[in-house]
Write a structure and sequence with these properties.
The complex is a heterodimer of chains A (134) and B (129).
Chain A: H1 5-29, E1 45-53, E2 59-68, E3 75-77, E4 89-91, H2 97-129
Helix pairs in contact in A: 1-2
Chain B: H1 6-31, E1 41-44, H2 46-53, E2 75-78, H3 93-126
Antiparallel strand pairs in B: 1-2
Classes of the chains: A alpha+beta (134), B mainly alpha (129).
Chain lengths: 134, 129
């Protein structure tokens, strides 16, 4: 472990939270998308974090994968919509805006906690560099 | 490191080393705040320091000694005060932030103590004018 290991760990946390934030953003942006790349309505996505243990029980975090949520979306009656089925029902994406907002605040706070940790580590490094200076 | 610098500076340096390592453990906890199943960790060296600072005395006339300076070993274990969230992750952000600033302060204190030692040595070399 050197002076920058702790900073690398915090950086991995920031990277993971940013990925989570990006996924939340794409969920919110696609809250009404009925045509996804794979066909059918957009499926909300979620990140899976994994602990990445290295030397001396220190561990950074990484995004293992981004998974699609297979929960069926809400069906609304909209016969004029080109994506409506023969009964006039459109299946909307399974995005719940409340849930995404909660996720977003969680990601934002965790990101902030990591930046605070980086700042603390930077101050510590500066303090160590100041030893011997008079 | 003996002689001019004595063992205090090397002791303080190993304390700083430990503080830096503990900062890494705290950062790991904060980085893994949303990792399912992650268990909060805590680094300790206090017991080790206690056993080191007391030397065996075979006679009641013996003066207690401050022990020998050597590299500090520390233990990492699961945090015994952790609470469990609903994804079986045991990181408590408030506690981690508290530990973060506490640890930083103690690191700074050791750095200041080394600084004071060095200043004192410089004064002794230069002589007080």
């Amino acid at each position: 472990m050197d002076l920058f290991t702790a900073m690398d760990i915090s950086a991995s946390g920031m990277r993971a939270q940013r990925t989570r934030m990006n996924v939340v953003s794409s969920n919110i942006a696609n809250a009404h998308t009925t045509r996804s790349a794979t066909g059918g309505p957009y499926q909300r996505r979620d990140v899976v974090f994994r602990e990445n243990a290295f030397e001396n029980k220190l561990s950074s975090v990484e995004v293992e994968r981004i998974v699609s949520d297979p929960t069926p979306g809400q069906r609304v009656y909209e016969p004029g919509n080109p994506d409506a089925d023969e009964n006039g029902y459109v299946t909307l994406p399974n995005v719940n805006l409340m849930e995404e907002m909660v996720n977003m605040i969680g990601a934002s706070q965790a990101f902030e906690a990591n930046t605070t940790a980086v700042k603390a580590q930077k101050d510590m490094a500066l303090k160590a560099l100041a030893i011997g200076r008079i | 490191m003996a002689g001019l610098f004595g063992k205090e500076i090397s002791e303080l340096a190993s304390v700083m080393n430990f503080r830096l390592f503990r900062q890494g453990i705290i950062s790991s906890n904060i980085a893994n705040i949303d990792t399912p199943g992650y268990k909060s960790k805590e680094a300790t060296f206090e017991e080790e320091l206690d056993t080191r600072l007391t030397m065996n005395t075979t006679s009641p006339e013996h003066l207690p000694s401050a022990g020998q300076a050597q590299s500090l070993t520390f233990k990492v274990a699961e945090d015994p005060f952790a609470r469990i969230g609903n994804d079986s992750n045991t990181v408590d952000l408030d506690r981690e932030m508290m530990k973060l600033s506490q640890n930083q302060l103690l690191y700074d204190a050791s750095a200041d103590a080394i600084q004071m030692k060095i200043t004192a040595l410089k004064e002794a070399i230069r002589g007080i004018r």
